[in-house]
Amino acid sequence: MEFFEWDEGFSTKIQRFDDDHKKLLTLFNNVYHRVFECTSLEEERELTQHTLVELLDYVKYHFSAEEELMIQLDYPQYLEHKKEHGSYIAEVNNFLDQHKQGTAALSFPTFMFLKEWITKHILVRDKEYGQFFNDKGIR
Ligand SMILES: [Fe+2]
Ligand SMILES: [Fe+2]
């Protein structure tokens, strides 16, 4: 079983964003698996940094894509949604910094926190826009 698995309960009813979310899950799984493959702290630091940067870049890309569509279609909850995105990017950046400066390997509780946060965001915030976008003809 994967660390982070997709199921239909995650569906926002918007195909492109469901695809993005699946890719995000894959990136989380990559971080998780690579950490266990490492044989030295040095290797762990390098690989984890690389994988976290990849995750952060994708998160930024995905959040912007959602926000652009929201602006385009005048989504009423745009500001609250964007605010959550902003605080998540700050958390991931923070985590990346901590990992870079720390002498220990990836902090598992913090990593779990990032995973739980994005899960909740998809299940609550992202699912809120499905019906609204569907009504505007976006599937
Ligand atoms: Fe979102
Ligand atoms: Fe999303």
Automatic annotation (TrEMBL):
This is Hemerythrin-like metal-binding protein. Belongs to the hemerythrin family. It holds the Pfam family Hemerythrin. InterPro entries: Haemerythrin_Fe_BS (IPR016131), Hemerythrin (IPR050669), Hemerythrin-like (IPR012312), Hemerythrin-like_sf (IPR035938), Hemerythrin_metal-bd (IPR012827). Residues 13-129 form the Hemerythrin-like domain. One of its GO terms (molecular function) is metal ion binding. The keyword Metal-binding applies. It comes from the Bacteria. Keywords: Iron, Metal-binding. It comes from Pelosinus fermentans B4. The keyword NADP does not apply.
